[in-house]
Amino acid sequence: MLVSFSVENYKSFKDKIVLNFEDAHDYKYNNQCIKNGLLSKVVIYGANASGKSNFGFALFDIVCLLTDKNSHPTQYDELTFINADSNSDVAVFEYVFKNKKDKIIYIYKKKSPKVITYEELYINDKKIYSYDFEKQIFDQPNMKEIYAENLNFEYFENNFAILRYIANNTNQPDNSHVKFIMNFVSHMLWFRSLQENGYIGLTTGSGSLSQWISNNNLAKEFQKFLRDLAGIETNLDIIELTQPIQQKLLVEKHKNKMFPFEQIASSGSKALELLFYWSKRFDDVSFLFMDEFDAFYHFDLARNVIKYIVDYDNIQVVFTTHNPNLATNEMLRPDCYFTLKNGKLTSFADSTERELREGHNLEKMLRNGEFNG
Question: On the chain, which terminus has fewer CB atoms closer than 10 Å, C or N?
Fold first, then answer.
């Protein structure tokens, strides 16, 4: 699991910003939001332009660094990568992972989206290696801890992450920390549904969601998903077309007509279609970031979506939202709700001197500015 993540000098974050999943309080309710002592379900609130999306892009920078999975164009914007008000020319990323009882710290620095300048790895506070890409100084005191003590770096490309090079050029046992990191990162997923859909990580490629549902004969399962989650009653089916090309088509049937689903679906239904698509892969996801997840949802539906995803015990999840109706102890807890303001993330529990209890109305407190820091 991810224990914490921090970034500094990246896009809108001049100073270091930290999301600490270890900051769990001793609440006695909604413990499904805690796993192995870590927060596993988190909601981030923030005003427009507070940096919620940028924080997600920062957290998923490691996907671009260590894998060939899908990325977002914003992550490769040279102009905005380094904070415009900083005197430093590098952004610093730090990931702390927990692999069973072991703590892994992975730090790297970049001066542009594709140019890494420094990298280091620690396991249980023991330095495994560090590498200065500009000075080409390689300190590797404990490479045997990651089964890389005999690895030949003669043909190492100087702008290729050391960790990725090790993963690609050594035989790692199943319980190795390198394999753990690579598997975790390879199964991270970021997605959102706004004017157009986008995603980072987990897979590659793109295509029509309705076509995917049709090709996999999931019309009735999607119909049930819409009914159970959103109360949408519709009659979906799949028909075979031969013109202009042979293909399957997802349609909504009515008494006298049928329509292509994509042609008549509302923005909310299309957002649910995207959620349905990714939910079929949630069993393979390690970490999920849903940016502005409820942009097209009624507030009741937004609650249902959170409740639905909380049931996935295997996934750490971060939601971003503007919706104060979601701030309730009925679903999560005060230590699972965060506000992003002035480049700092603070949980509700740490934003007030008041002792928050299960009976408190978090939504009312949020609206009244209780958690403004």
Answer: C
CB atoms inside a 10 Å sphere around CB 34: 18
Note whether 62 and 190 are within 8 A (CB): no
Write out the H or E segment, with its range, that includes residue 267: helix 267-279
Three-state secondary-structure class, residue 230: helix
Q: Token pair of 222, please?
A: 């999607």
* pLDDT digit string, tens, across residues 78-104: 999 999 999 999 999 999 999 999 999
Determine whether 22 is exposed, middle or buried from the number of CB atoms within 10 Å of its CB (0-12, 13-18, 19+): exposed
Length of the chain, please?
A: 373
Tokens of 271: 């957002």
DSSP 83-145: -TT-S-S-EEEEEEEEETTEEEEEEEEEEETTEEEEEEEEETTEEEEEEETTTTEEE-TTGGG
- List Cα–Cα distances, 35 to 23, 27, 348, in angstroms: 12, 13, 19
| pLDDT range class, residue 296, cuts 50, 70, 90 | confident
Would you call the peptide bond into 244 cis, given omega within 30 degrees of 0 as the criterion?
Answer: yes
Strands 34-35, 38-39: parallel, antiparallel or unpaired by DSSP?
Answer: antiparallel
Helix 299-310 vs helix 219-230: angle between axes, to the nearest 10 degrees?
A: 110
